[in-house]
Amino acid sequence: MPANRFNGNSDYGIGIGLRVPHYAHILAKKPVVDWFEIISENFMVDGGRPLQLLDQILEQYRVVQHGVSMYFGSADKPDRAHLKKLKALVKRTKTPWLSDHLCWGSADGTYTHDLLPMPYTFGAARRTAEKIRQIRDYLEVPICVENVSSYAEFHVSEMTEWEFLTEVVELADCGILLDVNNIYVSSKNHGFDPYDYLDHIPHHRVGQMHVAGHTKFEKYILDTHDHPVLDPVWKMYAHATRQCGVSATLLEWDDKIPSFDEVHHEALKANEFIDGAKKAKR
Amino acid sequence: MKKPPKHPPARIDSTAELKSFQRVMATAVIRPLDRQGDLQSKWIDGRPMAQVAAEFIKPNDRLTAFERLQLYNQMYWYRLFEAIRDDCPGLRAAIGEPAFDRLSKAYLADCPSQSFTLRNLCSRLVDFIRAHPRLTAPRTALAAEVAQFEWAQTVAFDGEARPVLEAAALAATPPDRLRLGLQPYVTLLELRHPIDTFVISVKRRDAMRSEASNAPDAQVSRRAVRRVRRPRLARTLVAVHRHHNRLFYKRLEPSAFRILHALAAGQPLAQAIAAGGPKVQPEKIRAWFTSWMALGWFCAPGNKPRRPGSS
To answer: Which of A96, A258, B43, B233 could serve as a FRET partner for A23 with CA atoms 20 to 30 Å apart?
Structure first.
C-alpha cells in the first residue's frame, strides 16, 4: 500500500541509508533523494557532531528512523532510558513511522548487538505483540516490524516464520517492513519457497520494503549488505510490489560502501520493478 | 546475565519460558571462542556443546545444530572485536596487537555489553585494566592512561552539552558561594605520560597507512610509515573536550588544572581559585577563565559533583 496507517499515511519513494562515508557528499552537493533512513541508535546521543549533522540533514531531507536494538522479541521489559532517548529523537526527526526488527538480542540486560531469530510460538508472538503495543503507545508513532535473516531454526517453533510474523502484526495491529533480501537469505538457509512467504503475509500491513545484497558461502548465505542487489531478490521485490502495492523502498548498503552516486543508482533500479508492477496492474 | 537453565524449555507459552530460552541461547552466543576461533566444544556444565545445541536448534541438510549456533557465536565476537579495535587505536599501539587481543578477549568476556549501543563498549575498560594488571604488564599504567584518554574522546565526541553560563549571570553571586559545573563532555586528565601527543601520532600514522594502502606501490609506501614510539614518563595535565563539535586536547598548567578540578568537584569559586596555589598571578587566572568561558566549559553544577577523569 503506498500510503497507509502503518507508515503514517505518507507516500515516500525510494530512499537510501544515511551512512558516514556519504556525509560530506550529501552536505556539499545536496543530491536529490526522496528520503534517508537513519539508524536511530547512531543519533540517540546527548550532543555533539552526530546531532549537528542530523539537523543539517533534516533541513534538506525527509528522514525515517530504523532501529537495531529495540528487540521487540526479547523477554526483558522495554528499557525506559532507551525509550526516552528514542522518543526525543522521534520528536527531532518527525519520522512518519519507525521500524525495528522482529527479533531479540538481549537477555537480562546483556546485549549481543545481533538480530537473533525468534522461536515461532504463539506464546512468544503474544509477548512480542504486547511489547510492540507498549512501545508504540509510548512513542506515539506508527511502528513497522522487519523480518530478519536467520541462520538457525528451533525445535520449539510451532509455525513458519511468515505465520509468526502475521500473528505478531495482527495481535499488535502494527505494520510490516518487508525485507525482501532477508526472506531470500532465510529461504536458502532453511529450504523454504520465498514466494510462499510473500504470498501469505497480510499485504495491507506493509508500510515499507528493504532490498539489499548478500554473500553466498558454501553451506549458507549471509546477509552482508555489501553488494548490489542480486537478480532473484529484485524478482521477489517485483512480486512483492505487485502484491502489496508500491511501498516506500530502501536500499541497505552497510559495508564496503561505494560512492553515494553508485548506491543511489542501485536504489533507483527499484523504479524498473515498480513500473513493471504498475503496468501489470493496469 | 542470570545462569541459564540446564535444558532449554520444551515449549514457550509464557514470558518466563521465553526468558529461559533466550538465556540459554544468549549464553551460548556470547561464550568466548576456543583457540581455533570456533564455538567451544563443551557447555558451561561440561556436557558436549553439540548435544546442548541439538536440544534447541534444528540441523539442516548442510549444517549441524552446533554449526548453526557457531555462526552466531562467531559473528558476535567478530562484531565486538571490530568495535573495540576501532575505539582503541592508541591502546593497540601502546601495548601491541597480541596483548591487545588478549586484553579485549578477556574484557569482553568479563564485561559484556550492558548498553543498547556499542558506543559504550569501552566504558568499563579502564577499571578492567587496573583490576587485571597481568594482561597488560609491563605497561599497565600506560595502558590504563591511554584507555582513559580514548574513553574521554568518546565522551567529548557526543556527550551532553548543558546551557553555557554567561559572565553576567556569574557576577550576581559572590565568589565564596558561586559554584560552576564543568560541561559533561569535558574530561580532566592527570596523566604520567603525554598521551595526547601519542594519540595524535597514532592517528597520523593510521592516516598515512590508509593513504599508503591506496598508493600504486603499496608495499614500499607502507614500509615508509613509521612505528609510533611509546611515550616516556612526563606528567601531563590535559582537558579532552570539543569545540564547534570538533575534538580537542588542551594542555593545562598545574594551577589551572587544580582550579578546574576543584570546580568539577563542587567547590565554590573562591575555594577553587585558592586551590590553584598562592603563587598564581591574578592576571593569569583571569586569562584562564576568559579562555574557559570562551570555550563554553562552564554550566550550572549538576546534582552530584563530578570526579575529574571520569564521566
So the answer is: A96
